[in-house]
Amino acid sequence: MSLDQDQQLHSGCHDKTTLCLDSSDSCELAKHPLQGLKLASHKVLERAQQTGRLRCSKCGGSRMFFCYTCCSLVGVSIQEIPNIKLPVKIDIIKHPNETDGKSTAIHAKILAPSDATIYTYPCIPEYEKDKVVLVFPGSEAVSVKDIQRCLGDRRKMKLHDHLEEPHPKRLKIEEVEGGTQAAKNPEAEATDEKSKVFPLQRVVFIDSTWNQTNKIITDERLQGLLQVELKTRKTCFWRHQKDKPDTYLSTIEAIYYFLLEFHQSFLVQEYNGEYDNLLFFYSYLHSVINKAKTSAAKCRGQL
Ligand SMILES: [Zn+2]
Description:
Elements: H1 3-10, H2 28-31, H3 43-51, E1 54-55, E2 62-63, E3 65-67, E4 72-74, E5 89-94, H4 105-111, E6 116-120, E7 132-135, E8 142-143, H5 147-164, H6 170-178, H7 193-197, E9 202-207, H8 210-217, E10 226-229, H9 251-266, H10 280-299
Parallel strand pairs: 5-6, 5-9, 7-9, 7-10, 8-10
Antiparallel strand pairs: 1-2, 3-4
Bound molecules: zinc ion.
Subcellular location: Nucleus
InterPro entries: DTW (IPR005636), tRNA_Mod/Golgi_Maint (IPR051521)
GO molecular function: tRNA-uridine aminocarboxypropyltransferase activity
């Protein structure tokens, strides 16, 4: 794949969840974030790249690896690429003006098909405010490790609001709520055992430019969702704009880093690269671009 072809695949710098993050954290991982990942072999992508672009069997578009319009593979088979199981469902909301070919959101849908869903704004679901969070660095955003506590608080609020309304079970709930340890009383939250253990059911990401993100974020259906921001991760996105800090993440990076923090915060077993393959295409394209840049610099005698 030439650099030119890749530009068609991922041209421009519009693929960003545009997370404006604190740049004070300068961990080692941030310097070389794509090194040390546990990735499936890229041989299949090398082979497909040598074959070159092919027609998508559904829409006829000229594509490499996958069709971003049809969300289907092109030139590689499903058995040849990783299939990742995520610990929580992922929804990605993309702006209709966003060119599909520029987005890395499709990587998540192709690599974790049973857990990732892409919606095109304004067609988005109604979300339950005590079970769903939105990854966005708003002024009241909390860190990943605070999700459980904050959603727990929301459940308590919901239970409390419930009390304010006339309800046949009012007396019973009041009895529970009247105890000093009401929130910890198992009866109080026994209705949904699973969400009591861990309330988070779904994480929403926005895949669009910064201006478009602001339009989506003010949609009333997303108002009141708990906003979560990620710790600093420097982007490897190969086209980040000069005037944007390198802590702006592409959508697939944001999803990956969210899951990494989520795993480290809440799951008992140590992280062992379970979601690294979300960056399967991303890391490959990143290395192709870097090689192209290096050889171009050599041609100009700069190296
Ligand atoms: Zn297609």
